[in-house]
Amino acid sequence: MRTVSCFQLILRKINFYKTNKMGKKIIQQSAVIVLFICYLYLSHIESAMIMESTHFLKPEDVYENDKPGLQIFCHNANSKYLIHMWRSLTMHLNTNIDNYDIYDGKSPQEVMEKHDDNQRSWNFNFFSTKRPKKFKMNPFEDVCVGVYVYPSNSHKYRISMTQTPMDISNLILMLLGAMIYWSARKLSGNPIFYYVCGITLGVTTSIIILVYFVSKLLPRGKIMYLMVATGWTMSFYLIQALWDNARLIAVQYREYVTWYILLTSLISFVICYRFGPVTNVRTKKLIEWCLQIAGLIMMYYSSYFHEASFFSCVVIVLLYNFPIVLIRRGRSYWKSMFPDRRRLLTENEYRIEGIKETNKALNELKGYCSSPDCNPWKTVLKLKDPIRFAKFMEGESHLSEDESREYDAEITRIIEECEYTDEEDDF
């Protein structure tokens, strides 16, 4: 506005001093230079004012203000990490003042433009409406909130910022959306879900019809002209007043409200019972698709980290439409194409594995020889020492004493050779 006033003043001077062609040319050139200098000066003043009234807050910061006018509070975007998927940021305004305006934007310049537009527009502030004192913000974007306090006896307020590492409400919204998407097919044919949705829809529709008939009794023409003449402030005031009156009625006449809800619920239940649950396959499919879309929307908007929430939606769609068997087959195919490199066993591991596999094979042999599938007489005829086999089946060792001594001697010889080889290597 200051720049425009400066331009208008200079143009008036130019029109006043237009005496001849030479003077006109000189005046025009001088005017261009002066306009440029004036523009730079006012831009510098405006940017300095914006920087002076802008405050960058971090979580747990508290700022106290006692000056009137516009103060802008900004937060710089955080880095996006998957562990911060459900992080949320909240700005709290602690004040007893009712005469103030709130503006939001991505930068201080945007907040200032909204404030200037609001100051230039014709609106009323005669009505006392409740303004928000708690603002949820996206921690992964640059966000600014402007608080404009009108000149009055008191302008004190305190603004603070808190950060929640994991917002439980967003996490519950994500899980609820996933459950709705995954159970959409069962819910579309569930009678209990059918009756609950029918009763809820009936109560909501009855309230809308009641509001419609009440609006018929109002002088529509005069109300409409008044809302158009006074702008959005009057409209906001009327909506706020209607909402406050509705809450007041619900509190003071809660018995009548309860009986009204019960009566409309009973009527809705009777209508749903008369037509019965949905049996058409295509109708069930449409209900299933609507539930799945609603579940995906809930999952997407459950986090300010929209890339991660969109990835979650893609994952649940793939898991739902492609069975686990296909995933297992794909994993086995990947392993066959790119097998893992096997690790060689150490000498101790090889000996332990050999003992374990030998005992396992001997137990399987005992089990087979004791089963009805084995013919004992044919087995005895094939053996060189049936008595030794019988002792083995009764629980004795499968090795004889001579074989045990030979095995121990062989092991001792191998160990001595290894020790002798190691001593030579040391020399």
**Helix run count:** 16
**Could you describe the largest sheet, including whether it forms a barrel?**
4 strands, mixed
Rounded to an integer in angstroms, the radius of gyration calculated over CA atoms is: 42 Å
Beta content comes to: 5-15%
Low-confidence stretches: 16-21, 123-129
Distance between the termini: 97 Å
**Major beta sheet, strand line-up:** 1-3-7-5
Helix content: 55-70%
Helix/strand/pairing category: alpha+beta
- The rough form would be described as elongated
Strand and helix order: HHEEEEEHEEEHHHHHHHHHHHHH
- State the assembly state of the protein chains: single chain
Give the averaged pLDDT, no decimals: 75
Q: How many extended strands?
A: 8
Which key terms come to mind for this protein?
alpha+beta, 16 helices, 8 strands, 65% helix
Question: Could you explain how this protein is built, in words?
Answer:
The strands form 2 sheets. A 4-stranded mixed sheet has the order 1-3-7-5. Strands 2-8-4-6 form a 4-stranded antiparallel sheet, with no helix packed on it. It is an alpha+beta fold and 427 residues long. It is built from 16 helices and 8 strands. α4 (168-182) runs antiparallel to α10 and α7 crosses α8. Mean pLDDT is 75; it is low at 16-21 and 123-129.
